[in-house]
Structure formats: structure tokens, C-alpha cells
Amino acid sequence: MSIELISKKPLIVTIDESETLDIKTIDAGAAYTKYLHQQVGAFKEEPLSKYVDFVSKSINPNAQRYREQSFEYIDLRDVDDIYGHILKVRKLKGKQIGSNKCRFQKWDILLAKIMPSLENKKITLVAEDVSNALASTEFIVLRKKTDANINLFYLFRALRSDHFTQQAVANVTGATGRQRINPTKLLELRILVPPPDLQEKIGRAVEQEFTLHALSVEQTNRVDDETAPILGPTTLRISKASSRASTRRRRQ
Prior knowledge:
This protein is α+β, with helices and mostly antiparallel strands and 252 residues long. The protein folds into two domains: 3-39, no CATH class; 48-200, Adenine-n6-DNA-methyltransferase TaqI, Chain A, domain 2. It has six helices and 13 strands. It has helices spanning 28-38, 94-97, 152-159, 162-170, 183-188, 196-231; strands at residues 3-7, 12-15, 44-47, 52-55, 58-59, 70-74, 90-93, 101-104, 109-112, 123-125, 133-135, 139-144, 190-193. β1 (3-7) and β2 form a beta hairpin. The longest helix has 36 residues, at 196-231. The two termini are 37 Å apart. 25% of the residues are buried.
């Protein structure tokens, strides 16, 4: 093979001159992305831009016209990076949210663009009913194209795969500690696209996972309502995780 991976951290690859002809910018990230593409097995790859649009609409909720409006709000801490579920949608007034935020709607995909949240797969599919929703600008909002021939739940899972995450991490830019991936570059990355029957099979399993999660959240809320008068509030987060989440790197 004409591209060889020497090391992941730091990222070091060797590449033959012939392989650079179709690479716009020759750097380690671009070479590593092409290397990953060459590792693919039987399924074809397609650029993400074929299936989704980048939604760039944003507002300043602290502006006079929005200050007293009620919004559903999500930031990085509200998304679970282990399973990709939304932990909580907060109901806030615009004046409580502050500076510019991204608009999103039900069935959009929110993908964290900043490290290490990007590498930790802080990506979610919005299955909740929302009507006036905002997200942190550290998310990239992706919306499936109306004519895209791909299962939405499969697409969400494909974006959480190591195959895609490795491409994204290899193409971040910026100073260490504040590295981000540009939305335009993200759309150039490729996802694995199996035949429709396999997409549907995987999609049904993922959709069922979302359904079970929703039922679990509903039951948890019932338990909270019953116990709160006696035990008081119960937080979902603790200072030091004792579950398998503690084995993961520190999160954004």
C-alpha cells in the first residue's frame, strides 16, 4: 500500500507522491483520511455531503426580541457521549442563555466540533419534540436531505463509528486545547454505506434503542416525582464517576 501509518499519536504517515495527486491540501490529516478510506472492506463509501446539509442558522437569544421567549436549550454537557442520548433538554428564557446559539429541530443531528468532545463521540440525534430549540455553537447541526436515500438511524450510528471519528479527529485545526473541525471539511468526510436492507436492519435496532431510552427516561421522571418530597432532588452527575464512564478520557 502506498500510504503507511507509522503512528497515531503523534500522527505520522508516509505517502507516495502518486497518492498526493487527488489531495487538495497535503498534510498528515488529509493523508490519514485517505489511508482510512483504503482500509474499507466490501461496502462503498460516500461523502457525508451527499446525505446531509449543514444548518447554519443562529440567533442571539439575549437580543431584545428574544429575551423573554422560552427556548429548549442543549449544550455539550446535556449529551451523553457513551450512547449519544440527550440527557436533558432545558427550558430557559432567552436572557438566561446568552450569546449566539444554533437553531435546530426534531430529527437533526448535533455533532460536537471541538476536541475532546469530538473524539469522545458527543453526537446525538434529536428524537425529542421541540418547537423553539437552540444548541451551543460548539455543535454542528446536520439535517438529512429530503431526497437522501439513507436510513436516518443508520446515518446517526455511522457518524458515531470509529471509521468516521478517526477521519474527523485527523482533520481538526486550531491551537491545542481548542481544536475544532470545520463544517465544510466535515461534509467532505466519508461514511460507509451498506445496501438498503442492511441499513434498515441496523436502523431498526437503533430506533428501538431510542424508544427504550425514552421509556426509561419517562420511568425515571415518575420515580423522581415520587421520591422528591421525601429524599429531595437527585442529580444525574457526580464528581467522580464510578461506572465504566470513568475509564473514558476527561470530557468537554
